[in-house]
Amino acid sequence: MTSPNRPRSFQEVILRLQAYWAAQGCAVLQPYDMEVGAGTFHPATTLRALGAKSWAAAYVQPSRRPTDGRYGENPNRLQHYYQYQVIIKPSPPDLQDLYLGSLRAIGLDPMIHDVRFVEDDWESPTLGAWGLGWEVWCDGMEVSQFTYFQQVGGHDCKPVSGELTYGLERLAMYVLGVEHVMDMPFNDPAAPIPLSYGDIFRQTEQEYSRWNFDQADTDMLFQHFRDAEAECARILGAAAEDGAGRRIPMAHPAYDQAIKASHIFNLLDARGVISVTERQAYIGRVRALAKGCADLFLTTEAAGVAA
Amino acid sequence: MPDALIELFSEEIPARMQARARDDLKRLVTEGLVEAGLTYASAGAFSTPRRLTLTVEGLAAGSPNTREERKGPRTDAPEKAIEGFLRATGLGRDQLEARDDKKGQVWFATIEKPGRPAAEILAEVLDRAIRNFPWPKSMRWGAGSLRWVRPLHAILCILTDEAGARVVPLEIDGIAAGNTTRGHRFMAPDAFTVTGFDDYAAKLRRARVMLDPAEREAAIRQQMGNLAFARGWDIVPDEALLAEVAGLVEWPVPLMGVIEDRFLDLPPEVLQTSMKEHQKFFSARNPKTGRIEGFVTVANIETPDDGATILAGNQRVLAARLSDAAFFWDNDLREAKSGMEGWAEGLKSVTFHNKLGSQADRIERIAALSREIAPLVGADPDQAERAARLAKLDLRSAMVGEFPELQGIMGRYYALAAGEPDAVADAARDHYAPLGPSDAVPTAPVSVAVALADKIDTLTGFWAIDEKPTGSKDPFALRRAALGVIRLVLSTGAKVDLAQVALSHIATLFGQVQMRGYETQAADCETLPDDLASEARMRVEARMVPMDPDSGVQALGRHEQWAADMSADLLSFLHDRLKVHLRDQGIRHDIIDAVLAQPGNDDLVLVVNRATALNAMLATEDGKNLTQGLKRAGNILAQAEDRDGVEYSFGADVKFAETDAERALFAALDTAEPAIRQAMAQEDFPAAMTAIAALRAPIDAFFDTVQVNSDNQILRRNRLNLLSRIREVGRQIADFTRIEG
């Protein structure tokens, strides 16, 4: 942590990761413009992991986990946070080395730190997806999730994508030596107007924690869930050809509805209105949507089907 | 005699899978070699997180030539038969030989298989082993189709003899075998060539890789010991953690750190669990304070700053973790001191099983049952009930939410914080025990009462909803619960009438289960269309409250019959587990059967005492012969009763005795009968055994000299009635017909 190469702010950690993965040939995408629970939900990962076409992308994804809200008081927990996501298909043979390069890029030198790959298999019941890999430990702290996708939406991934997910706040706090997330410098501390993470997000964490836990209108949310589910099913069931006879299956619009349903489910869960037994049923409903989207995506050009 | 060296170099293999993978690699390769006719002298397997290694020494240079003769069809057999023979042997017609046989001229084939060189066989065997490796979970990567536990990067496969080392030609999914490997990922990443196992192990060591997991464990143990010694501390031993940590590093570097003062008041179990589960740290105890004050983390690298950065990082992570734990502990203690009402309330919404209700329902049942059992095991009923009500409240605590394995342990702390007496608090900790056949059994009466109640409620509950274990499926661990009941009852020597306890509890459960079923049905009615809903609701409600008294009585009768059937079935399940338990203690299964066939078999202590005494007697010469005599008496009697259609059970009179042997038997029985009766009544089974064993000589003498089936009907009947006295005496002890031999 005393490396001279150390970044000075949260945004510098992000910028260095962006530059590093751009240099490795990844398309640096922008965050998906919908509420998601993790970077994996971005169609650039979920859908693009399917099919035969090669793919390499990296992006920041704002992620929301309503149940993790702590009104901005917990040093490590947030209901809104950032993930950095890298997805490369087929997974290159030197993916571990590429990953270690990214740690060096943000000032974590594996020659003075203890970097370890510790078994951690990944599964997303709502996406019908799973993979094998590790959580990467740096001096005993989990800094990333490293996964070789085996299935998405119930389909075998062929070829296999390699996915890297960095929990940005935690990683940056470690690199910057900060104890409480809200104290972390967001921009350069020497900037004319230095801003901390708390300056930007303390109030929003409070507001969203209150809304997530106490205020969100559950009747409305249940209705939204049903609407998203119905719209997703309708899109999936629509004819592949449009009125002019062009073949345009609408995998992405359908998938937006699946994402929406998934996030609404998370909100309802945070409001505590979904019982343990119902929980499984809701997860199953979202999975069915995601599966339908995966099925449809596999019929499209982006999945490698000839136009 | 060449030696073979194989290394499969991959990305990090999960620590928990390495031991089995070593065994599997050794087994698959050596069995394959032997099957192909290649002998070897010895083999050894090793692993690190990144490699699986096998050395096979003293390998034969090749498999031997083989020659096999096969007899085929007659030379004048149909063409098809001859063609079939050619196909089967892989020979041409001109290679066959016609020989004279008893039945005429017959084709003979001689199949010669030349031996094959070791390299060829090894390549085949290794190819097969890699493709069929039984990983618990395996994966694909990149664009390939090969499966391995994580991406496989390189295969080293060489044969070494006097002439030197050569690579065994082999290629799997684009990975060609070679003679190079790499050292530590960070400290010595470059490739190097090896010429044999010794060279390989030595070069790896220079490249900062300790190949042998046992050596890594020993090194960790020793270095940790040194670090602890320097501070006057002890490392808390944890073999499972040691094995895991040794599987996470190629070059172990233990580093010792100190736990900050502000965390030292946390219970030691919390410190230990948090450090182990989250960070794979060993705990260090200060013997002077008895507290856990330090930790050891095992790094995988030597750094220029001697691990200072690594230790500082780990310390930081630990502080964050323990801050969480301290936060949980403080909040939990506050709740505990205020009476834990909130937790009790919370358990109402935690489902135990949808047919058996919430955890709160379950606690209610266990409390009642603990009260009932308390006097049987010498516990105070109020304390037992109180303990049962508290024992599971910690399931709602934040700490147990974070560390489920601390359930019970935290319960004890919280009960103490709530001002409960030690007996009650200890029961909260101990009521889950025994968890396995080797787990300690609680002995404190209150703990025993609650532990028994907990398990009996589980058993009767799942029996009541017909979720019994079948075959290898036992999702609710009912066999373990049954064994727990058995061990608890036996170790306390308590006289618990299990049949009675189970029966009354099952009857309670029945009402609850049925009512819950009705409630669910009633709730389901709400989802029906309105016109159907009211009709359906009426029907369900009619069953919830018996409308007319007659049907109510009938229903009650059915309940009782059902509860009796259930509890009998459950008792026989307990008997099965008892048999397994006693068999493990060296008591023969037929002896257990013979005792279980007796009345009073629902008192497990009685059953075991009888079985133990009987087991001891049957091990003696007298015992074995006595069994023969009793069986012989029983058989003769059964045949006679069968033929005559009557039961001989009464009226043997010594005045019809003809011989001394007969009279002696009468006399012996006159002595033995009351002695056995008295001994059995006092449950002094050894005395009963001694008394019955004394009958051996008179019974033997009787059968040696007396003909039971005499022509004289009076004598015959008298003797049969005498035999029935023998049978009765035996029956007091056990059902001897079930004793084998």
TrEMBL record, chain A:
Gene3D superfamilies: Bira Bifunctional Protein, Domain 2, Class II aaRS and biotin synthetases, domain 2
Pfam families registered for this protein in UniProt: tRNA-synt_2e
CDD domains per UniProt: GlyRS_alpha_core (cd00733)
Catalytic reaction equation(s): tRNA(Gly) + glycine + ATP = glycyl-tRNA(Gly) + AMP + diphosphate
GO molecular function terms listed in the Swiss-Prot or TrEMBL record: glycine-tRNA ligase activity
Chief site of localization: cytoplasm
EC number from the UniProt entry: 6.1.1.14
Keyword RNA-binding on entry: no
Assembly and binders: Tetramer of two alpha and two beta subunits.
HAMAP family: Gly_tRNA_synth_alpha
UniProt similarity note: Belongs to the class-II aminoacyl-tRNA synthetase family.
Name of this chain's protein: Glycine--tRNA ligase alpha subunit
Automatic annotation (TrEMBL), chain B:
Highest taxon listed in the record's lineage: Bacteria
Chain positions covered by the region annotation Disordered: 58-78
GO molecular function, a single term: glycine-tRNA ligase activity
The DALR anticodon binding domain, residue ranges: 630-729
UniProt-annotated location(s): Cytoplasm
Record SUPFAM superfamilies: HD-domain/PDEase-like (SSF109604)
Basic and acidic residues: bias regions: 66-78
Xref: PANTHER family: GLYCINE--TRNA LIGASE, CHLOROPLASTIC_MITOCHONDRIAL 2, GLYCYL-TRNA SYNTHETASE
Subunit and partners: Tetramer of two alpha and two beta subunits.
Protein name from the UniProt record: Glycine--tRNA ligase beta subunit
Gene name of the encoded protein: glyS
